[in-house]
Amino acid sequence: MTSPACPLCKKRGIPVDRATVICHAKESAWPIGDNPYHICENPGCEVVYFSSGGCLKKADVKTRVTFKESGPPRPLCYCKQVTEEDVISAIKQGAKTVEDVIEATGIGGGGLCKFTNPYGRCCSRYYLPFIKRALESQ
Ligand SMILES: [Zn+2]
Questions:
Q1: Count of domains in the chain?
Q2: Residue 72 C-alpha to ligand 1 middle, in angstroms?
Q3: Looking at the structure, do residues 54 and 21 belong to the same domain, yes or no?
Q4: Can you give the pTM of this predicted structure?
Q5: Structure letter (DSSP) for residue 34
Q6: N or C: less crowded end of the chain, CB within 10 Å?
Q7: In this predicted model, what pLDDT tens digit does every residue of 18-49 receive, in sequence order?
């Protein structure tokens, strides 16, 4: 089964749970309806979530969705509220390994990703590659 395409940019979306969309939708975008939602992963597209009943753009979502943002703060771990800037700062202050960064920032293990992360998925698939890249670029 292929995913439906974003109504604005036509890129295929990734399915997201309705509970996740409810957590991130601004009250002004209520009601979000009962149709299944998808997230648009195109960084340049204003649409965050869409369903066959409509879409929620960046302005309709209260959470900063990291890949849609070019400036700080760029959230990395929503449960523990750690940003990309926090990770960079930990590395500047001497963190040398992924474990050091985890210890210094408290990133990961929050367990609430279904509600806090705009994908509704564990943040580690995003923050681990980011931490590795940040360490390598030092
Ligand atoms: Zn889009």
A1: 2
A2: 22
A3: yes
A4: 0.91
A5: S
A6: N
A7: 999 999 999 999 999 999 999 999 999 999 99
Dist. CA 15 → ligand 1 center (Å): 13
Q: How far is the CA of 43 from the centre of ligand 1 (A)?
A: 8
| 107 alpha carbon – ligand 1 mean position (Å) | 29
Measured in Å, residue 11 CA sits from the centre of ligand 1 at 6
Claim to verify: residue 77 and residue 43 sit in the same structural domain:
no
Residue 79 C-alpha to ligand 1 middle, in angstroms? 25
Indicate the helix (H) or strand (E) that contains 82: strand 82-83
Residues in CB range of 31: below 8 A, 6 or more apart: none
87 with 67: CB under 8 angstroms? no
| In a shared domain, residues 86 and 111 | yes
Q: How far is the CA of 53 from the centre of ligand 1 (A)?
A: 15
Amino acid type, 99: E
